[in-house]
Amino acid sequence: MQDEELKIFINESYETLNSLDKELVVLGKNPENNEILHTIHANYQTFLESSKFLKFSKLESLTHIGERLTNQLVQSDYE
To answer: Is the CA virtual torsion 39, 45, 51, 54 positive or negative?
Structure first.
């Protein structure tokens, strides 16, 4: 892995985690907010794919849990 790839990953991860932090607070205050739920799910997917691409297997496993949980919530919106 190149140093530049790692720097990009760290910067993007920082932004994604900051967004997730804020979005999870919003969702906690308004659990019926489907738009924010979809945004959270998309952020988990992005983080998961980045972790997978860079072969960060432990981070990928952890992120996959969040992605699966939000996927279940998103899917329950359609049922």
So the answer is: negative
